[in-house]
Design brief:
single chain; alpha+beta; 12 helices
């Protein structure tokens, strides 16, 4: 079905309304969503008022009022599960020449009960005053084990309900009755762990098209790359009567849960605080990164970046630098030196130098890596930067972008100590690049112009982010900015 506004204060015309699970549902939920949605960590439109909502799709996964089985975690009380894709309309001043943003589409999983038991009190969204759910309580369904079980069962059985479709890789055994728990540390998405066996990642802000967090792990699984957990099942919404890619929305991915695995960022901080060497781990992580890049090169097309593409790349980096310097006065003294990183890349492009671009992780840092108890590293979260358009996140890029992201992550870890552990970061950076060379056959430091350009671009982004969100962290990227603006080949072996 086509997307349409069934209830919104927006005045733009649209196609015919989509079918609601029950008439008047969104209208009755709007007062609650206006208060609850902006408070969620994964809501992208903070700082701008919500002017209205429109329904993209709505499905009753568990009919409201249906009784759960006796002995279930909900104790036999009545509960319903609504799956909604809702577009939140917000005012936005478009950039020059760009169209106004239509509003972000969010995936909502709402539990419905007559009364909320005390254990689910933190999940409360509100009490519905009128409409089809009048007198009922609505809450975040992922906190409710009974409703989380409904999602796993739908994936296990390849269910199709309304516009929702579940698929699975039958090589993975998904048993019934796995105990669920919601992960509380999510930022841009939400996750549920089932029996320490699987983890379901649900995308909160959804866009049409192939999400790289499903696309690339599936590709790597078929290629036999064990460095990325292979998708066991996934859920999509097909919002059209034809095979229109604009109607294809990836909603969630179920993958093996790496029980006992250590988060790379937390592991690095722990070892650093104890004065333990991390270079061995950094080298192993470099090898794991290269294995993923090599597998992606084998399985997906690569492109050659010539002068036009590189000039466009340099223009984008330069524009981001100028915008950040305008917004952050502390960056301005370094801008001329930083600009030379991009100019050096442009000079090589003018001389006829080319680079290969391929599919990459796109947002690689220590927090996107897990080390198993056996010492093996895995890469996770291939979604890329959620703030970037999907088409941009799926574009082939030089592997130097991923490598630069990891090098910056070592610097961030080193600055968790005072004074910063500069030598620790230098050793990790060198070890990571050496490990990468062990597999790829080429050390990233032997291409210093491209690597410096990407690391500079990343550091500029970090300066702007920290200035806006975490001013106390601003000295961390500024230290890198000072180095990058004055030392053109700091990491060259």
């Amino acid at each position: 079905m086509s997307e349409a506004a069934t209830h919104s204060t927006a005045t733009s015309p649209g196609p015919p309304p989509v079918a609601e699970p029950m008439p008047g549902l969104l209208t009755s939920l709007e007062p609650l969503l206006r208060e609850w949605l902006p408070r969620q960590r994964w809501f992208a439109g903070k700082g701008r008022p919500v002017t209205g909502f429109s329904l993209v799709a709505g499905t009753e996964l568990l009919p409201v009022g249906a009784s759960t089985a006796a002995g279930s975690p909900s104790g036999g009380s009545k509960a319903g599960l609504l799956h909604l894709l809702v577009r939140a309309h917000q005012p936005l001043v478009p950039s020059q020449g760009a169209p106004a943003h239509p509003g972000d589409c969010y995936q909502l999983l709402l539990g419905v009960r007559e009364a909320l038991p005390p254990r689910l009190a933190p999940a409360l969204i509100g009490h519905v005053a009128d409409g089809p759910l009048a007198g009922r309580t609505v809450y975040e369904a992922l906190h409710d084990p009974r409703l989380a079980d409904v999602l796993l069962e739908a994936l296990r059985t390849k269910a199709r309900v309304g516009e929702l479709r579940c698929e699975r890789d039958m090589r993975h055994d998904i048993p019934e009755g796995l105990v669920s728990r919601m992960v509380t540390s999510e930022q841009s998405n939400s996750s549920i762990v089932y029996g320490d066996t699987f983890i379901l990642k649900l995308f909160r802000r959804v866009v049409p098209g192939d999400n790289p967090d499903l696309e690339l792990p599936l590709t790597l699984s078929r290629e036999g790359c064990a460095r990325v957990p292979a998708p066991a099942a996934w859920m999509v919404a097909e919002l059209g009567r034809t095979a229109d890619p604009d109607g294809h929305h990836v909603l969630g991915v179920l993958q093996p849960f790496l029980h006992g695995a250590a988060d790379g960022w937390e592991l690095a901080l722990s070892m650093l605080a104890k004065g333990e060497d991390f270079a061995v781990e950094a080298r192993a992580l470099g090898r794991a990164t290269a294995e993923v890049h090599t597998a992606l090169t084998r399985s997906l097309p690569t492109v050659t970046l010539g002068r036009p593409q590189l000039e466009s790349l340099v223009d984008g980096m330069t524009e981001r630098l100028e915008a950040a310097a305008q917004a952050v006065p502390a960056l301005r003294p370094y801008a001329p030196g930083l600009r030379t990183a991009f100019e050096a890349l442009a000079d090589l492009a003018a001389e006829g130098r080319t680079w290969t671009a391929q599919r990459i992780h796109g947002d690689l840092h220590l927090g996107q890596c897990l080390r198993s108890p056996s010492g093996e590293w895995s890469l996770i979260d291939f979604e890329g930067e959620p703030s970037k358009p999907l088409a941009e996140r799926r574009m082939p890029q030089p592997v130097a972008r991923d490598i630069a992201g990891m090098l910056r992550s070592f610097d961030y870890a080193a600055h968790s100590l005072q004074p910063p552990a500069a030598d620790w970061a230098t050793a990790c950076r060198a070890a990571y690049c050496s490990g990468y060379a062990d597999v790829a056959g080429a050390d990233p430091r032997t291409d210093p112009v491209l690597l410096r350009a990407y690391e500079t671009d990343k550091a500029v982004y970090e300066v702007l982010y920290e200035a806006r969100h975490r001013p106390d962290w601003l000295p961390v990227p500024l230290a890198a900015v000072h180095r990058l603006a004055t030392d053109t080949e700091a990491d060259t072996p």
